[in-house]
């Protein structure tokens, strides 16, 4: 169920292993949160876009389809705070100091945790950052780059959950992050994957699935399968999972989706980040004339920009996360709001502007948010040691199969049921795990 990249990869691998597979997809397209949109003479990614150099599964998948990843790094970008400019590699000294202090404090906690020492109670990452940063500008800078990674305000994110991801960053080389994009577009890659499948049903939202392998489709018809792979986003879990009444799913308070998954995964809740992407098309790539890549982090309405247009499309992407994303979506014309704020720092944007598009993943009923993160007191690292450095710099070799167990005949895939949580790589990792589970189930 679900023809995002996790479901598609699972289906591909199961068919390869000789299984008969039916994929039910709610939308009229495949790809889920990977969507390549054509605009002007080119295209852009409305959802998942960047691939890290150690996302080995994505790179291998591309190779299977005969393409190499497209090198696309736009680092270092501009940084603008209260009208003053810096760059990511030459940030203001007070901001650099706070970033260093946060890094050292995180490293110290991770080292302690790996030694089995007590690192105290979980708390909101934001509160912990407040206690470390020395300057207002430094605190803003740390928030800006952390929020762009998490897709959410740090006040919402668990310190321990964040440390788990940070532990992996410590073990990586410089320049690994966001080095590539998917050649031809991620959504297009999903279409190519789908073309290989025997039985894919679009416009087929599943209403219920039971641990006995029953799947109820939109017409109320019941289909019985040996195994069901639940490859929906965490934000859609509660809508379709039919569980025994004594097991409670606990949507949590707040305006965004959250479920208690602990009963299945021995994991507490994940939440879906509130992130929206906007795309602004321009007549010309005026940022290149300024010898600038288009990447910028700022304290204005845009939060983050980068060159999103591919092919011959001149376009900037705008990424807005957390509470500001919700506020922006409440505006009558969100594109105009971000254009105004970009024009404040780059006046040439207004003259060159053609049109804009909004991709609001938070109100998308088949996504429920952009990608998953751990809220406070819900990180798995509360119960287990943080990952140790791995010699290949990636987490490819390690699939933590004990964390995500099947529930009856239901197996769980998706970017929330994996170690690379929130990444395309994680969705592929989960697909590989599920296929192993089904092979080992021996039916
Ligand atoms: C704005 C944004 C930016 C991102 N940036 C990056 C990035 O730079 N790098 C990166 O690695 N990742 C990024 N991601 C995350 C990445 O896109 C996801 O991790 C990945 O696409 C998840 O794949 P999936 O198959 O697990 O889930 P999905 O793609 O969400 O697929 C789930 C599928 O299930 C379908 N579905 C839902 N409900 C039902 C139902 N009831 N019945 C049947 N089908 C249903 C959905 O329509 C969907 O097709 C980003 C995501 C967003 C939204």
Descriptive overview:
This protein has 443 residues and is α+β, with helices and mostly antiparallel strands. It folds into 3 domains: 5-73 and 179-272 and 368-441, FAD/NAD(P)-binding domain; 89-170; 275-360, Polyamine Oxidase, Chain A, domain 2 (Alpha-Beta Complex), CATH 3.90.660.10. The protein is built from 14 helices and 24 strands. It has a 7-stranded mixed sheet, with helices on both faces. Strands 12-11-10-14 form a 4-stranded mixed sheet. It has a 3-stranded antiparallel sheet with strand order 2-3-20. Helix 1 (5-16) runs parallel beside helix 14, helix 3 (93-114) packs across helix 5 and helix 3 packs across helix 6 (159-170). The longest helix is centred in the N-terminal third of the chain and has 22 residues, at 93-114. The structure holds flavin-adenine dinucleotide. Flavin-adenine dinucleotide binds at residues 1-7, 24-27, 32-34, 47-50, 205-206, 231-233, 236, 239-240, 275, 277, 361, 366-367, 370-371, 414-415, 422-425, 427.
Low-confidence sequence ranges: 242-268, 382-402
Determine the fraction of residues in helical runs and give it as a percent range. Answer: 25-40%
CATH superfamily of the largest domain: FAD/NAD(P)-binding domain
Largest sheet data: 7 strands, mixed
Count of strand segments: 24
Q: What do the pLDDT scores average to?
A: 86
- Please write the CATH class name of the largest domain: Alpha Beta
Please work out how many helical segments DSSP would assign. 14
Cofactors, ions, other ligands: flavin-adenine dinucleotide
- Rg, please? 22 Å
CATH topology of the largest domain: FAD/NAD(P)-binding domain
Instruction: Provide the β-strand percentage band.
Output: 15-25%
């Amino acid at each position: 169920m679900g023809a995002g990249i996790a479901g598609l990869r699972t289906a591909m691998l199961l068919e390869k292993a000789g299984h008969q597979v039916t994929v039910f997809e709610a939308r009229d397209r495949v790809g889920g949160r990977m969507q390549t949109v054509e605009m002007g003479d080119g295209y852009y990614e409305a959802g998942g876009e960047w691939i890290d150099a150690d996302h080995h599964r994505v790179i291998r998948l591309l190779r299977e389809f005969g393409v190499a990843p497209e090198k696309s790094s736009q680092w270092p970008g501009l940084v603008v705070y209260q009208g003053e400019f810096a760059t990511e590699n030459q940030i203001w000294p007070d901001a650099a100091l706070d970033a260093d202090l946060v890094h050292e404090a995180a490293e110290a906690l991770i080292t302690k945790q790996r030694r089995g020492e007590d690192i105290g109670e979980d708390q909101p990452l934001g509160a912990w950052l407040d206690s470390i940063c020395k300057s207002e500008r430094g605190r803003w800078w740390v928030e800006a780059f952390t929020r762009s990674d998490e897709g959410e305000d740090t006040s919402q994110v668990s310190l321990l959950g964040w440390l788990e991801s940070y532990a992996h960053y410590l073990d990586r080389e410089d320049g690994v992050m966001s080095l590539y994009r998917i050649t031809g577009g991620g959504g297009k890659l999903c279409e190519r994957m789908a073309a290989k499948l025997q039985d894919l049903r679009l416009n087929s939202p599943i209403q219920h699935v039971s641990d006995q392998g029953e799947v109820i489709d939109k017409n109320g018809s019941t289909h019985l399968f040996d195994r069901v792979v639940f490859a929906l986003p965490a934000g859609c879990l509660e809508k379709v999972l039919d569980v025994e009444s004594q097991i409670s799913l606990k949507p949590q308070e707040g305006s965004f989706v959250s479920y208690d998954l602990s009963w299945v995964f021995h994991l507490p809740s994940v939440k879906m980040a509130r992130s929206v992407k906007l795309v602004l098309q321009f007549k010309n790539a005026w940022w290149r004339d300024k010898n600038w890549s288009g990447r910028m982090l700022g304290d204005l309405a845009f939060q983050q920009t980068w060159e999103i247009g591919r092919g011959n499309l001149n376009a900037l992407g705008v990424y807005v996360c957390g509470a500001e994303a919700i506020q922006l979506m409440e505006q009558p014309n969100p594109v105009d709001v971000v254009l105004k704020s970009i024009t404040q720092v780059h006046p040439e944007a207004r003259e060159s502007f053609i049109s804009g598009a909004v991709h609001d993943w938070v109100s998308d009923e088949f996504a429920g948010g952009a990608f998953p993160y751990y809220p406070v007191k819900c990180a798995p690292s509360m119960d287990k040691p943080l990952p140790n450095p791995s010699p290949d710099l990636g987490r490819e070799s390690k699939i933590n199969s004990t964390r995500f167990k099947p529930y009856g005949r239901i197996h769980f895939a998706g970017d929330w049921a994996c170690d690379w949580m929130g990444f395309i790589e994680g969705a592929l990792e989960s697909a590989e795990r599920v296929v192993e589970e089904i092979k080992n189930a021996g039916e």
